[in-house]
Amino acid sequence: MSNTFDDLDDGRPESPAQRADRNWNEILQELRVLQTGTQILTGFLLALAFQASFVDLEPAQRVFYLVLVCLAALSAVVALAPVALHRAVFHLQVKPSLVRSGHNALRAALALVSLLLVGVVVFVFDVVVSLVAAIAAGVVLGAVILVLWVVVPMSVRRRGGGAAR
Questions:
Q1: What is the reported pTM?
Q2: Going by fewer Cβ within 10 Å, which terminus of the chain is more open, N or C?
């Protein structure tokens, strides 16, 4: 059995090349959604540094803020990696490898964005309320992300059976 994500027989009447093209297009659509959210978060973070109250942050909050900015930038780079790879291998007949790499990059970008989301919520709660409230909010959001992005998809995958295996 192959480990390629675009060669699974899911009952659709398509050639391996058509399946790879379809899967690549689906990855691109998912990346568009992810990039929009990441860009909004990044813009929010970058705007914070130019607010008058930014100077009132504690040194630890400033360091955490910079970590979040770096995480936002890394998320954008990883989410754009499949596009850069596509440009590098355009017309080289390697679509199945491209789909596999795009799939892996998208999963990594989702992991980074989940950390970014939790981090931004923790940062805002820390600045606005308290560190204790920030930790509580981060744990709750982390649990929600874990359930919706990991547990539910695994459950659907198990129930779906067939092609996913």
A1: 0.81
A2: N
